[in-house]
Amino acid sequence: xxxxHAQLIGDKAVLxxxxxxxxxxxxxxxxxxxxxxxEEDVPTVGILRLAEEGGAFDWLAEEEDLYTANDxxxxxx
Length: 77
Description:
single chain, 77 residues
């Protein structure tokens, strides 16, 4: 018997979920597989990726900066 431990975050498990499921399928062809998964309630990485790649904040790239270095009261080095 093969035991797989995986933490699934969204559709990823260190490799794309489809590849992970394919590996599980291949393993099941040769022996019994016990699959243990931990799926987070809030897929943090998926949410971060959605914010990054989703386009909701694209408009910020064209906005002028609200503050400059001249607005600093204290400059830390």
